[in-house]
Design goal:
The protein is about 45% helix and about 20% strand.
């Protein structure tokens, strides 16, 4: 069953989604959504981003087709500075999974770069024309067109899978920020500072560094505290607030938990050893 067919142009610096979004499909990009159907989305102009639960985040550019899977959390949006134009077809068909499998489109890599392919573009346009006219047997006709589109995605010579963003530079930038004595107000703010969403940042950070950003930040703060205890005359209270620990008692408990001794004991031991 075809659930929706559409086309929309989103100009630069305009809200997204627009209020023209089909009833029942409107969503907030910061929160994302889960659909009960497949959707094929073809971006014919502009650029933006797609993030999915299993695939991660992808930079979407002109000429890319992405598939939204039923039951899969996702979010997407055009780039604010460029906007985008895109066609879509929603389909609830038990054969869809087989069609996608035959074309090697998978839930963890749902993006194809086909360029502006005249044949694929005409099929999306034809589906929209038929849906708007509600011609006799239009459901069956668009089902056939969708099957053909999916088959073409697997056979177009210049069609290539799009690799998801690896975010190595973003994560390394976040680590550099955490290594400075300047306080980090929150992990959510840190994620925004390096150009990533909060959930994606946490997932990628743990994948690359082997621990959560909270744990990494705590370790960095303790390392900074060790240096301040040895190399400065700052009081425990001053160090506490300089490193945003909240309270001297919390700072002391966290320091002892990681280092094994209290901050005062650590400072006294290091001072004696340097004499």
């Amino acid at each position: 069953m075809i659930t929706c067919v559409g086309y929309e142009e989103i100009s630069a610096h305009t809200p997204y989604p627009s209020r023209k979004h089909k009833t029942g499909y409107y969503f907030e990009p910061d929160k994302g959504r889960v659909l009960n159907e497949y959707q094929l989305v073809y971006v014919t102009n502009g650029e933006g981003m797609l993030e999915t639960e299993h695939g991660g985040e992808f930079n979407i550019k002109t000429g890319m087709v992405f598939v939204l899977f039923p039951g899969e959390w996702h979010t997407y949006r055009p780039n604010e500075d460029f906007g985008w134009s895109h066609y879509w077809i929603g389909i609830n068909n038990k054969n869809m999974s087989r069609w996608l499998e035959n074309s090697n489109l998978k839930i963890d890599n749902p993006v194809f770069n086909v360029g502006i392919n005249g044949e694929i573009l005409s099929l999306f346009q034809k589906a929209l024309q038929i849906a708007e006219a509600e011609q006799s047997m239009y459901q069956n006709i668009i089902n056939g067109l969708t099957n053909y589109i999916v088959a073409l995605l697997g056979s177009v010579n210049d069609c290539q899978f799009v690799e998801r963003c690896n975010y190595v530079d973003n994560i390394n930038q976040a680590c550099m920020i955490m290594s400075n004595e300047e306080s980090v107000d929150s992990i959510a703010d840190l994620a925004r500072n390096v150009g990533m969403g909060y959930s994606l940042f946490r997932r990628e950070f743990k994948r690359q560094k082997g621990c959560s950003p909270i744990k990494y930040l705590q370790t960095q703060k303790i390392t900074q505290a060790e240096r301040l205890l040895v190399n400065t005359n700052l009081s425990l209270k001053e160090i506490t607030f300089r490193l945003s620990f909240g309270s001297p008692s919390y700072f002391s408990s966290q320091f002892k938990k990681i280092v094994g001794v209290s901050p005062t004991r650590y400072r006294n031991d290091r001072t004696r050893s340097d004499r």
